[in-house]
UniProtKB/TrEMBL annotation:
One Pfam assignment: SLH
InterPro entries: SLH_dom
Domain SLH intervals: 98-164
Record carries keyword Signal: yes
Keyword Membrane: no
Highest taxon of source: Bacteria
PROSITE patterns per the UniProt record, alphabetical: SLH (PS51272)
Residue ranges, annotated region (Disordered): 212-308
Name the record gives this protein: SLH domain-containing protein
Keywords in alphabetical order: Signal
PANTHER family in UniProt: KERATINOCYTE PROLINE-RICH PROTEIN (PTHR48148)
Signal peptide range: 1-25
Bias kind Pro residues: ranges: 222-308
Length: 454
């Protein structure tokens, strides 16, 4: 009886505890969704871009920068981009507190929040580390990395061709799929780039869902082929045995006896004595003297040439980037200069280091390294130009040298102001172009300059 009473008391207590918790959960309301109007720094942007921002905010894909600003011209870290793609592609996000990458610290509040998103994106095959055990969560994401994540997340990795640089194949597939991520994979992606690229992918996802729902098709079962009967071979008739004839015995003839002949005795001959021959003396040969061997001269070893400083610097660069876990110091800008590679500075070294690490085709020649450096410098120069037109009050005005490094020809000190004005006009009316005018598209920038010079 005592057991029954205690059991009912326990059930009553559980019920009392559950009822308040259910009510409080029902009373919880989600915070209101922000729109572009909640961010003062978005005022004045064109309506098309604001509509894309509002669409991403409504779905919870993007947020502000933690203040009252959206920071449209700023960059996004690799950790933040992992969270973005996890939301866009509706990944299952766990509650991991420890990362598989050694540089994502679970005890550091500034990066621990990103661990579940990074692990989810890694598990889905959408994002990779910078090496096998490092992720660089606080590094800003590049346009090439953005294209890679969007293409992989949309399931189009199999369409990517192996190219140089490594990200070009992903840029090509992204462009063919309608993902607007630009053409320069080396430049740092702005939050504006991420808005436009992410929105184009969500549009593609929504269209794919709508098409699947409208078709309402079911999978057609694969027909099972009817088994072909195996023919049964006709039985081979057993042969009728033929009786073996019994041979007729042949009588053995009786031999006729032949008389044994009596031999006639032959007289034994007397041998004639043979004279013993006298040996002829053989003369003793005169010994031939052994020739003295001619000594073989010892070859003089060819001295190993001492590498020049330029060769030694090139070898140091290849030694560092040619190993998964290099045990030598990373080359600085002075090593590149000694090797004959120009344009490497302390400010762009981090981006060149990343590009060389991603290329992974060491050993290179000086010409090959110079080509990679030039590409990185062009990307950074395009970013400088883009940043100025997005926020002229914050970013410095690009000069003629910046345009030259970006690969834009015809810009001089004398016509710089006219070029700036023409590009500003094209940027303000960018959606009137087909395709839309992009500040990071060097071909479109060159076309504006060419029109001005005509």
């Amino acid at each position: 009886m005592k057991r029954k009473v205690s059991k009912w008391i326990l059930l009553s207590l559980v019920a009392c505890l559950l009822i308040p918790s259910v009510v409080s959960a029902a009373e919880v309301t989600s915070p209101p969704t922000k729109t572009s109007k909640d961010f003062p720094d978005l005022a004045g942007l064109d309506a098309a871009l604001l509509a894309k921002i509002d669409a991403l905010l409504a779905k919870g894909y993007m947020e502000g920068n933690g203040t009252d600003k959206f920071d449209i011209t700023g960059n996004m870290t690799r950790a933040e981009s992992a969270k973005l793609v996890a939301k866009i592609f509706n990944l299952t996000v766990g509650t991991e507190a420890t990362s598989s990458f050694k540089d994502v610290d679970g005890s550091d509040a500034s990066s621990s929040w990103s661990i579940p998103f990074i692990e989810a994106a890694k598990k889905a095959g959408i994002i990779d580390g910078m090496t096998d055990n490092t992720f660089a969560p606080k590094d800003n994401v590049t346009t090439g990395q953005l294209a890679t994540m969007l293409v992989k997340g949309f399931g189009k990795k199999s369409e990517v061709q192996t190219t140089t640089p490594w990200y070009q194949g992903y840029l090509d597939v992204a462009k063919a799929s309608g993902f607007d991520v630009g053409n320069n994979g080396a430049k740092l992606a702005t939050r504006a780039d991420l808005v436009v690229g992410s929105y184009s992918v969500t549009e593609a996802i929504d269209k794919a869902k709508a098409k699947a729902e409208a078709s309402g098709t079911t999978a057609t079962p694969t027909p099972v082929p009817t088994a072909t009967p195996t023919p049964v071979p006709a039985a081979t008739p057993a042969p009728i045995p033929v009786p073996t004839p019994v041979p007729t015995p042949v009588p053995t003839p009786v031999p006729t006896s032949v008389p044994t002949p009596v031999p006639t005795p032959v007289p034994t001959p007397v041998p004639t004595p043979v004279p013993t021959p006298v040996p002829t003396p053989v003369p003793t040969p005169t010994p031939t003297p052994t020739p003295t061997p001619t000594p073989t001269p010892t070859p003089t070893p060819t001295p190993t040439p001492t590498p020049t400083p330029a060769q030694a610097a090139l070898e140091a660069i290849n030694a560092y980037y040619g190993q998964p876990e290099p045990n030598v110091d990373a080359p600085d800008e002075s090593i590149f200069d000694i090797a004959g590679v120009t344009g490497v500075t302390q400010s762009n070294l981090i981006y060149i280091d990343y590009a060389l690490s991603a290329d992974a085709k060491s050993p290179w020649t000086v010409t090959e390294i110079q080509a990679i450096v030039n590409e990185v410098r062009a990307g950074l120069a395009l970013t400088e130009i883009s940043n100025y037109f997005w926020d002229p009050g914050y970013a410095p005005k690009p000069d003629a040298t910046t345009f030259a490094v970006a690969g834009i020809t015809g810009v001089t000190t004398n016509n710089l102001d006219q070029v700036i004005e023409a590009i500003g006009y094209a940027h303000d009316h960018r959606y009137e172009y087909n395709p839309p005018f992009s500040l990071t598209n060097s071909n479109q920038l060159q076309a504006v300059v060419n029109d001005l010079l005509e």
